[in-house]
Each structure stands twice: as C-alpha cells, then as structure tokens.
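Milestone M4 deliverable, item 7.
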Amino acid sequence: MKKRKYAARTKLIEFLIDPSSYPHKPKTVKHLQTHISDVFIAPPFVYKIKKPVDFGFLDYTTLRKRRLFCEKEVELNSRLCDIYLGVEELSISDGKFKFGKGEKAIEYAVKMKRLKDKYFLKNLLKRGNLGIEKTIRIVETLVGFYKLEPMNKVIIEYGRPEKIKINIYGNITTARNFTGKTLSLVAHEAIKYYNDIFFEKRSSIFNERIKGGYIKDCHGDLHLGNINITPKCVCIHDCIEFNERFRYIDYASDIAFLAMDLDFNGRNDLSKFTVTEVSGRMGDRDIYKIIDFYKCYRASVRGKVESLKSEEKEIPEGEKKASGRRARDYYRLSLKYAVLGSKPAGIVVFGLIGTGKSTLAGSISKELSCDLFSSDIIRKGMFGITPTERRFESFDRGIYSKGVTDKVYGEIIKMGKKSLEDGKSVVIDASFSKRKYRKQIIDMAESLGLPLFFIQTKAGDNTIMERLIKREEIGKSISDARKEIFEEFRAEFDGPSELPGNRYLAVNSDKKSEKTLVETLKGIIASRI
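Output delivered:
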C-alpha cells in the first residue's frame, strides 16, 4: 500500500512539473521543496501541496487534513498578504491527472500569485538594499496587525508558562535527534539548561505579558524568507496554519523570529532597530525582558527545520548539505543567545599555566562562533615567530619580560575592543596573572557598556605537571610554558579576589574537556539569569 501511494505521488509530482499540465500553460515550472511542502512556480502563479507527513507538531497524513489546512492557510495568510487566490482541487479523470473536479480528488493545492524574488528580504540584504526605511515599513505593518488582532480566553491561555513549555521542550526533545550531526551535545545541554533556569527564575514574566495584552493570534514563522517588500506594499506570507499553539503566542516571539534572522544574516543593527521600534510603537518596554528567550527558541526552531530538511530523502544532495550547514549555524546562534544574550560580550579565560586555558577558550570560541585572541599567538607574532616555534626563555625574561608582556596585554585588549565595537563577542585566552591587566580589560568593557565574564581554569598539581611534560614531549604546542617555571609563575600570580562574583567563575579542568565546557557555559548562564 505504501509503495502504491508513493508511486502515485511521484506521478503527481511529475504531472505538476510539466508546464502543459496547467490550464494557463506557463513556459516553465520550477519545483522547490521544504520538509513539509512541494512548491511549483508556474508563472504568474505558485501552487503548493502539502506532503503526507507527521512530525508530531504537524499532521498532514490524510487528504481531508491536507484540504482543511490548505483552506486554513489561505484564510490566515490573507490577513497580511493579498496574493492568496484559493484552494485548487487536483483530481483524476479517465486515469489522468487534472486541475479541478474529476472522478476522484487526489490532492489539494494552495494557489497564489507569484511574488518577485528580488523583493524578498534575504535578496534585498544580499544586494545591500535593506535599510531603515524598509524596516520601518515592515514594523508599521506588523504593529498595525498586532494591534488589530483580537484577544480571547482561548488565545490567552497559550501565554501561560505551562503552555509555552510545551513548545520549548518539544523543540528541545526533537533537537536531541540531531546531536552529533547539526547540533553538538554541549550546545544541546546548555540550551536546555538555559530554558530550565529561565522558567525557574523568571516565569512571572509570562504572566505579566498576559496582563499586558500581548498574547495574540500571530504569524508564527516570521523569518526573512516570508517577507516580501516592494515599493508599493509589504507582503508577509506563509504563516503557521497547522498548529494553533505555534501561532497563539506572545507577539514578542514573532518579533524575536525576525530579529533573530536579521542577526543570523549579519544585520545586528537592523535587528536592534526592529525591537526598539516595535517596543516604542507597542508601548512595550518589557519586551527586553523576554526577547532573548524567544530569540534562543526561534534560532533553535530554524535549526530543527533545516536539520529535518537535511535528512529529507527527496531533496537533492546539494540542498541537503546546505541545510545542514545552516542548521549548525542556527543552533550556534541559539546557544549564543542562551549563554550571552543579544549584546556582544567578552569572555576572559585565565589562570595558571597548564590548567587548560587554551583548550577551554578554543572550545568556547568554536561553540559560540566568537572571535578568539590568544596572548601566546600575539606575543610570538610581535617577534615574527611562528606560533608553534618553542622559545625556552627563563621566567620573566626575553619575549616574556614585563615590558613585552605589557605590550601583549595592550594589544590583546585593543583587538578585543575592536571586535566588541563591531558587534562581535570575543574570547580572550591569556593568564591575566596581574590585577592591573584585569583592570585594563574591565575598564575597556565598561567603557563600551558591555558584559565581561572571567573564567579561571584550575587543576591539581599532578594534572598540571602531566600536561606540561606532555607538552614538551610533543613539541607542537603554541604555549612555551613548562614545568621548570611553574612555581615561579604561581608565586607571582595575583589571586582574582577583586572580581565580582556574578562575573567570575572558577572551573576545574581535571575532568574531560567536554564536561569542563558544559560546566563553564552553564556557569555563565546562571550568572546572567
């Protein structure tokens, strides 16, 4: 039975790919796929049929359900876009497929007017043609929509924490299937922890949002690919029709989706501007209490969608690989929101030699896609020395003298500041053994009004000695630290007693590096929430 149904659907797809099948006889037909739909661009129209799939949160497995959801899609999307023309029946007559009623209905298609590709936000961004003016038009459209959308008791119930948890943890559960593929296990654990602690400590925010009247029948899938803006109009299409709990949401969740996708596409400035404009026009100052929470969720949703597409058998291999890359990037962005929020931030990984600073700093940088600056690399670069060339200087001599070290810290702080000013988060890998260096970087972060977290790596003496000896044996380490100078280094190390508790975390690196990384990310999250 399944084989017969698959064969029949394959023939239907072939029918819809053929330009001669359509009543208006287009010159060409382009076939696109998502994980839930087949789309046929037959200028000047677009036809979309739903795949007979069941993902738990979505069920298109019967013809009746697909027809009802096609009708719902047209009804809901007409609120924000005038391209929806209705639902077309696809049927069989005399053993042949046809548009319209026949002997037997076999599928239903949403029929739309085609939107011009060049006006989709992603394409406008690629051409550098999306700025403040167009963003304001989008904001005005959305704010007008939200203000007109009525509220009722059924919709409001979806704003309660227990309802929101269903969406959040349903997404996290699904994401577990992608660990080791498009999502690291470390990121999965940290994102879950962020949501756990947010619900534990800040659940009152959700009830405040209900009282503020912010739970609406929204769009639900407000990413850049669903917004088209011409000189004459703004068209926002393809809202969620298949599950009301994804659409009955805090409007801030909708805005977070748009803002997140602007971040993802390198327009942090427009992301920030969008949230600020919406906040002002909606009279909603409290949106900032919740926006990063929803950004984290929305990035994870896109990670899930792209992951599902990357495993879809019917999709060409090249598209699957591209979806896999996008999924990994979306999940990294979700993790960044969980750990650091929307603002750029600095993470200083410091401590005694041999305590695993560089390993941890590198892992944090990779997981969060942050810029990484290493004092060892900067120091050797100043003298034209390749990073792995060993220089066995005596303690506080040669390229490790106080004068050179002062210059190294001056340079590393300068480089970190430049990245932060550019809107990028940074990881700094250096011992920061003196309070004066720590004060310098604290002063820099405070001058920018940005958060700075200090992570001190610690390990037992035996572990440190083993690492330093192994480093000398392998001979390819960037660091020149060795066991002969350890005691002198420790004696000269200024303890970090001046660092504030909410910006300082000590981690034990004796355990496996992955566990140290998870502990570090969770520690930063706990200090922020």
